[in-house]
Task: structure prediction
Amino acid sequence: MNGNQDGNAHARAGRRGPVGFAVVGAGLVGPRHAEFATKVEGAALRAVCDLREDRGRALADKLGAEWAPDYREVVKREDVQVVNVCLPTALHLEVATAAAEAGKHVMVEKPLDLNVARARQLIDVCRRNGVKLGTIFNRRFVYGTRRTREVVQNGELGKLLVADMRFKAWRPQSYYTESGWRGTWSKEGGAALINQGIHGVDLITWIAGPIKSVAGHARHLRHDIEADDTTMAVAEFENGALGVIECTTSVTPRQGDWLEFHGANGSVLLENYKISSWQLEGVEQGEPHPEESLLPGADKGVDVGHFLQVQDMADAVAEGRDPVVTGEDALHSLAVVQAIYESERRGGNQVEIAEIMATAGMSA
Ligand SMILES: NC(=O)c1ccc[n+]([C@@H]2O[C@H](COP(=O)([O-])OP(=O)(O)OC[C@H]3O[C@@H](n4cnc5c(N)ncnc54)[C@H](O)[C@@H]3O)[C@@H](O)[C@H]2O)c1
Result:
């Protein structure tokens, strides 16, 4: 289990009442947030907001909550303490701002927004209003990625040489066209890399440390979209390691997600976030606590991360602390994604992460 989830039963037992959640956006991912808000200890789902009545009302009715089409009403509800933003990416800042200004804590789906400048604004508005901000990076909560991070960070893997990510999947043209926002620069800030690939970028940098520069290509080879469906980039980490970032929604059939780490003492490979090869003499791979396989979402692999993040936000509110994954934690992977897009614009030339951060007035 994640360190912050340990021993929380005691704290939950002492609460006055459940933390009220409202989920804004009932498309692909919102229903996961809503369902888990009904299941985590010390939380209650109060409202589901979606412009589309067929989605929003159906989900609210199923889970015993109220539906509203206008997020401005939802963020004002007195029985709501946390607003989960599960909307097209370009709307994250607007809705998080309304929630924060109404004094609500905010959980925002990845990516925080279209780029680091807007993500910074989102973080700042939450700070100014004294509310908590959590970002969903659900794959950090799976045993394989957590255990790999431990052996990289505690030095057992030895001097890190290579950290790679490959995401090779298929999305039909309808996935882009019917959404009205995916695959566009103005509403998504990119396509495959900023939507799917950012999970892997987050993981290799969470595990191996920050990236210093990237060089690569981000193109659309198969879909009729503005942004990328196929990206290949080389990354140079601040600690000197090198890595390859591959992300595509163009290949059939789906090939899966890989993460690979090679250090001076051995190698750890993960397939679909599970350790598939542990070549590290003298260090036990270990295994997840048996209770983890019983958690909601565990049967669907990484969905358990959504459950644990909703639980963590309820605990964070009750305990007056930050959530495990904050808004700041989401900036680096977004900067790497932006740098790869910038590299494509510059014909594949190297782009420093520090340059991208500077566009938002930040250092790397
Ligand atoms: N962590 C993950 O595994 C994961 C998975 C999928 C999506 N996401 C992220 O979640 C976000 C949403 O993605 P999705 O695939 O669920 O999108 P989606 O298009 O399937 O759903 C978005 C929903 O928002 C509704 N909506 C749009 N504008 C609205 C408004 N102004 N007010 C109320 N409702 C509105 C739409 O009707 C739609 O139902 C994106 O940022 C995406 O990157 C994360």
